[in-house]
Each structure stands twice: as structure tokens, then as C-alpha cells.
Write the C-alpha cells for this entry.
Amino acid sequence: MQNWQWSETGGIKFITIPGWKQQGVDMLFASRHKGAGRDHFDSLNMALHVGDDKETVLLNRQKLMDIWGKSSDDLICCEQVHGNRIANVDNTERGRGARKFDTVLPGCDGLITATSGLYLALFFADCLPIFLFDPLKRIIAVVHSGWKGTMGKIAIEAVKGMQQQYQVDPGSIQAFIGPGIGPCCFEISRDLADQVGGEFHERQDVLQEQNGSVFWDLARSNYYLLQKAGLKPENIIVCELCTRCRQDLFFSYRGAGGLTGRMAAVIGLR
């Protein structure tokens, strides 16, 4: 399977997977530049809930959707509460959260659809975006997996959702774990490290100790979770770019001390 690569359209630089595009899937993880924002939100902030000017965010969302000749009204967004609930969506949810945050799908951190023309959108600044695509039944999903979502095994819940709703074979699912905070920067407390060690007791390499501090590899943890859900290792692509290290490319919640924008992870079936 092809790897991820950088691409650029309309001045926006983004990560995508060419092999998915060839199979009729529009997907990207945007960088932070070539948008309309300023100061903490310089410049392609895509989130309505972080204190940025609403009209600026809507302008950025439409600029992003222009890449595919689509409207931002084709987006579906969810609340992202750091849980593990997944919503299956279709045309009845089209536009939820696209223009107003109070219309997002509440209480969930992942979206699944089989409906062409819908674009699932989540927003990130250190947490991991996980994209899923089943080329046999043409089902897509995207999930938000920070440390709480990882502990809640949201990646497994997303695969279960694809199985239950569409009888997808996990062995046919392809996955992309996008940029997030890396093990180089994600220092955690000893208490949390004990919990992680308990959940991933068979995979102790997800934790690294350096100079008395413990660092957690979220991407590796989710890689193992996807395998546990039935995905083949060769069908899982991992981007190892660290959002905190690469604030020249990405917004980072930790790197900015909390006040910052969000990148968009978007996927849709053509």
C-alpha cells in the first residue's frame, strides 16, 4: 500500500494518501498555513470552538473544501469530548457543525459513513487523527484519539462500528494514523504511566523512560489497537511527524500552552 505524502492545492499544504484518491476517496490532514487567521490562530484554524473569529473559520473551511470543488455545507462535525463513542452518519446529518458549533453531533469522537458526498471532519492540535477506509464495501471513518481516547480504545470501537453497521471485514480495512504529539514530547505522570502499562501490558514499548521522566508513544499504541481489532499490519500507515516539534507546520496545544488553532482531518467518498 502506498504511503502518505505532502500535497498542495490552492496554496494549502496537506498530507494525503495517493492510493486512496485512486480508489475514490478524498482525504487530507491540513497544515496550519495559507488561511485567514492571525496571532494564535495563524493561519488555517479550522475549529469553531477555540475562540477564533467565526467568519474567519468559515472562510478557512470553504477554502479547504475548494480543494475538491465541494461546499463546507457538505461537512459533518462532532463534539470531540475525549471519549470513545462513534456515530454512524448519512445525509440526514449533512452540515451538522459545519457553520455553527452548537449543531455538532454531541458526545462522540468519531464518525463513520457509507454515503458518497459527505465529508467527515474532525479537528486536532496534538491528539491523533485516525482515518479508516474499507475499499471492498466503500466505508470510511475518522476518529479523534488523544490519550483518553487511546485508553478508551476508540480505534477498536471504530472498527467494531464498521463491522456492526456494514459487516466490514477488519482484514480489508486500511488505516492512516496522522500527525500528533510524538513520544519525544508526550511526557506523562507516573500515575498515568501505571495505567498505560496496565492497558498495554503486552506492549511495554509504548512507554519510554528518559532521565526519570516517562514518555508515551500514542501512535504506536493505536497501531497495536488497530491490529488487535483485526487490521493487518501492512494495511496501517503511520505518520511519525510530531505536532509539538513541528509547530512550523502544525498547531500544538501543548506547544502553545493551550491557546491555539486546530488542523482539520477530512475524509469523504466521491
Notes: Residues 5-182+233-269 form a domain with the CNF1/YfiH-like putative cysteine hydrolases fold (CATH 3.60.140.10). The chain has a mean pLDDT of 97. Residues 72 and 224 are 34 Å apart (CA to CA).
